[in-house]
Amino acid sequence: MNFSALLLVALSSIATTTAFLPLPQAHPNVLRISTSSSPSDVLVALEMASRQATKWEKKQKWLEGRGLSAEATDSDGESSNAVNIIIAGAPASGKGTQCEIIKEEYGIVHLSTGDMLRAAVAAGTDVGVKAKEYMDGGKLVPDEVIIGIIRDRLEEEDCKTQGWLLDGFPRTAAQAAALAEAGCKADCFLFLDVPDEILVERVVGRRTDPETGKIYHMTFSPPDAEDEALIARLEHRSDDTEEKVVVRLEQFHTNVAAVKGSYEDIMVSIDGNRSPTDVSKDISESISAALAKRA
Ligand code: AMP
């Protein structure tokens, strides 16, 4: 895109988002874009017309409505009121589905270590190469591989200002200790409790739409039978097999007590063997209760 086209997009974005609702300087989506195609290499400050911006504003109103300060950032851009959540549970306990709802509701940054590692494997990075053999076998990747990635990611500005939702991390006592050492404190630790026999059934029928990230189950939550394009693009994870899930569950049971033990004071155990709507209702109440405590 040349400089004039970029500037046009920038100006129309500003016009659509800020005409009636000026965003504060600390807004997480004030971006600076370097326009190398411009002769003077101008920096254009953009107030982004994005769904994230809307979510951020929604969260400010939500916090205000609960008597919490709506000013989320200080002069360094450090967040004081960002909502930080950890969601845990066995494979296919419903974390992914609930994360979609939570991130929509609170506008926080969703970090799924499984997704991050799959992306690293697909891109063939050093981390991906190291992680692949463990993931293929259904085993946890070594702590030293995953801890650095998450710590670096949590240092980024969006996590500090918008808050974070950790999905699939920490999965071991060492990971929980590393998170605490890095000063990353969660407001609540949600644990989705589902019996093993249900998990196996869920894993085997699970399919993901790579375009939207939406998760389906071929029996319990099937895609629209007439949507042939969707059905054709659905992906079945290579570790979502009966054989691999046995190993994944073993790894989960070996570590879960230690992880839960690290968050006893903020842990809420939720019956995950119900409809996503019912589970989501409990999650919402638990997050509200956790935030009310800190008010
Ligand atoms: P998930 O998508 O959360 O089921 O994760 C898929 C796979 O990624 C797991 O079976 C592990 O091999 C690896 N993985 C994801 N998160 C972690 C973690 N926190 N620690 C170690 N391995 C992980």
UniProtKB/TrEMBL annotation:
Transmembrane segments: none annotated. It comes from the Eukaryota. Keywords: Kinase, Nucleotide-binding, Signal, Transferase. GO terms for molecular function: AMP kinase activity; ATP binding. InterPro entries: Adenyl_kin_sub, Adenylat/UMP-CMP_kin, Adenylat_kinase_CS, ADK_active_lid_dom_sf, P-loop_NTPase. SUPFAM superfamilies: Microbial and mitochondrial ADK, insert 'zinc finger' domain (SSF57774), P-loop containing nucleoside triphosphate hydrolases (SSF52540). The keyword Transferase applies. Residues 1-19 form the signal peptide. Belongs to the adenylate kinase family. This is Adenylate kinase active site lid domain-containing protein. It comes from Pseudo-nitzschia australis.
